Amino acid sequence: MSTSKFPDAAERTKTLEHQGNAKRKRILVVEDNQLNLMLLSQLLRVHGYQILQTPEGSGALDLARDEQPDLILMDIGLPDICGLDVTRLLKQDDHTKAIPIIAVTAFAMPGDEKKALESGCDGYITKPIIIERLLRTVELFLSSSPPEGSSLQ
Ligand code: MN
């Protein structure tokens, strides 16, 4: 299996090898839809990540502070505290502000990405989730340097 005509497959093999050598990264998945939470967590586990999960904003605040995950996937529509407000609180807290946060949202209106970035989110993914794109974004944020073109302003 030295060559592959599918660049994505080759890329993914490299990613898995890399993760096998490195310490497993921990991702906090914040999502109030149980099915989405399960699918996202399962997908990321299969790709070698360790998963923390919560369906609520308050749970996200606690877990982020206590567990210091390497990355947070943040649903915006949450039952208790809006994901954008959770993000603001995490980015104001010295103990959690360095954790990259990727907003995951079904609101695909113009201006929503700007709103997410203004709240302190480091990245933005829209639902329905495209698996390859999600994995690539996660990998980019978990590599040492922030991804090029991430327009944090
Ligand atoms: Mn939601």
Annotate the secondary structure layout:
Layout: H1 7-21, E1 26-30, H2 34-46, E2 50-54, H3 57-67, E3 71-75, H4 83-92, E4 101-105, H5 112-118, E5 123-126, H6 131-142
Parallel strand pairs: 1-2, 1-3, 3-4, 4-5
The chain binds manganese (II) ion.
Give a short summary of the structure:
By secondary structure, the chain is of the alpha/beta class.
Walk me through what this model shows.
The protein has 153 residues and is of the alpha/beta class. The chain has one domain (9-15, 22-143): 3-Layer(aba) Sandwich (Rossmann fold), CATH 3.40.50. The chain is built from six helices and five strands. The protein has helices at 7-21, 34-46, 57-67, 83-92, 112-118, 131-142; strands at 26-30, 50-54, 71-75, 101-105, 123-126. It has a five-stranded parallel β-sheet, sandwiched between helices. Helix 3 (57-67) runs parallel beside helix 4 (83-92). The longest helix has 15 residues, at 7-21. The N and C termini lie far apart (43 Å). Residues 149-153 have low confidence and may be disordered. The chain binds manganese (II) ion (MN). Manganese (II) ion (MN) binds at residues 32-33, 75, 77-78.
Key features?
single chain; alpha/beta; Rossmann fold; five-stranded parallel sheet; 6 helices; globular; disordered C terminus; binds manganese (II) ion
CATH level 1 name:
Alpha Beta
- Mean pLDDT score: 85
In the CATH hierarchy, the architecture is 3-Layer(aba) Sandwich
Number of strands: 5
> Could you estimate the helical fraction of the residues in percent?
40-55%
Shape: globular
Number of domains: 1
Q: Give a short account of the largest sheet.
A: 5 strands, parallel
The residue ranges in which pLDDT falls below 50 over 5 or more consecutive positions are: 149-153
